[in-house]
Amino acid sequence: MPRSKDKERREIETPIIPTFVFAEADQKDALRGLIAQPLHQHPIFSLMTFRGGVPEIKDSEVHGLRIEERRMQAAADERARRARVRTHARGKAVPIGTTIGLPTAAFAGVSGVVEESDGRFTVALVGNMRLKIATILFDDDGLKQPPSQAGAAA
After folding, report:
1. What is the rounded CA–CA span in Å between residue 55 and residue 24?
2. 0.70 surpassed by pTM
3. Is residue 30 classed as helix, strand or coil in its secondary structure?
4. Which of 7, 67, 92, 94 is the most exposed place for a label (fewest CB within 10 A)?
């Protein structure tokens, strides 16, 4: 992440290998046809040639790149989620009795019930443990409101 003069961080998306696009081997003729057209909807491109042919790369050879790309995308998604949560939930208390999903990967799938919340921290009962969690880590997807106390008498 490059820093500007005012120390503000900006995120810039870039591909792992920015000048290459991988295509299925059986699409080489279709790609040659696109290159031959004077006008088409794609950016200008060419096919890489080596020793008179277009090299074929096995899926297993780019498997590591795909894993790294997914890891980088997951990290970017998590940063975006945390930024959204920070601006959305700061100072917003979670109602008592709300069922929450714990917001960290270590506790994925674990839920608890809110006992108290002041907008800065939320105390939840998870099993027989009371956990104090920063409220800004929650997003609305992880909160399930308690059932309404108002009801009709039979």
Report:
1. 11
2. no
3. helix
4. 7
